[in-house]
Amino acid sequence: MNINSQQGYDSTCTCDSASGSVCMKYTCSTTVRSVSCFSGSSLLTLPDGSHKSLADIQIGERVLVNHHHTYEPISSFIHAKHDGIFSFLAIQVQSTKSNRTSTIHISPNHLIFDYDSGKAKFAGKLHVGDRLQFVDHDEIVPATIMNIKLTKQEGYYAPLTASGKIVIDGIVASNYATVSNHDLAHEVMEVYRWWTNLFGGSKSNEDIPWMLQVMLKIEEIFALVILFHRILLTLPDGSHKSLADIQIGERVLVNHHHTYEPISSFIHAKHDGIFSFLAIQVQSTKSNRTSTIHISPNHLIFDYDSGKAKFAGKLHVGDRLQFVDHDEIVPATIMNIKLTKQEGYYAPLTASGKIVIDGIVASNYATVSNHDLAHEVMGVYRWWTNLFGGSKSNEDIPWMLQTMLIIEQIIRWCGGEQLIESYI
């Protein structure tokens, strides 16, 4: 059951022991409720140059959204909550033009505009020294981040404007959060914007619109077919190199007995963006060495006891994975599994269809449940990359794997589960 408090926290309780219909023992955990917006004390600039807090602003009031005296009305609030205490990042900046300072209170997964790249980034990915877009005397100038700290404020508000931008405490920010691409979010929210223009906006909806929820789910689905973040491959000289830095053609460890193969291509890869991974920590039963692999839940990884590849999301603490320890494959016991977010994703391709990631033997493949079947089908793609060269810039998975996934789903719907699992 979920217990929703008024102070910005969510508690989840599980019944551990029951007598009839009565629960005798509970286990409860409490986490801070995630918000995606600005604090109620955040200041907006009005056409007369005065300021008004988000808590006091009303739908229809015109506010500064950019430089050159660009003001737009607040058409609605994507979501808002007037009471309750919530966590925000307090990001303090200093203008490089006038040395003016300002502090914005923003959720870590809200988008804010970087000055140097011109792109919107998650506030939680910013660092001291980064530069944000800042309106100083009607001009956008760089403002250097001087300090970032976690703070608690009352209320949260996510205002919506026609341009999808808004100036909060002098800093240019996006209307959007959670979804990593500002332009894409703005396009999708056009329908919601049209709806609010037609029927009026609201400042009382605590939940984000279903359109943004759908977009978030789509991003999560794409994240599930991703392999690894910036984790380490072993080179022939015994040194290590991250997937972000590895190049096509470099030879990497794919099994024990010093078996090295070149990276022929990347099934798909994306260098920027924030994605979800499982952080699976293992400990070798031979040397007690520990290692952690960051992998998507539906990527295949090799179980030690069965010798088969399994979806990472199906593993449990206590299961044993194949681990290369002093040139020998030994069992490594899973000690911990947790969800984490990291930047970038990479799915390398080798001749054997296997690769050693942070000492753990993993498959090249995801989404399709049978490693051997995926390896057979991907032989055509491997031949193609050997003939014409591989790529590290293709964000979408090959059509062959997409087709395989569809075929596998059809077979499962028709009751062919055993056929898929027994394929060799």
TrEMBL record:
Keywords: Developmental protein, Signal. GO terms for biological process: cell-cell signaling; protein autoprocessing. InterPro entries: Hedgehog, Hedgehog_Hint, Hedgehog_Signaling, Hint_dom_C, Hint_dom_N, Hint_dom_sf. Pfam families: Hint (PF01079). The keyword Ribosomal protein does not apply. Residues 35-136, 137-181, 232-325, 326-370 form the Hint domain. This is Uncharacterized protein. It comes from Adineta ricciae.
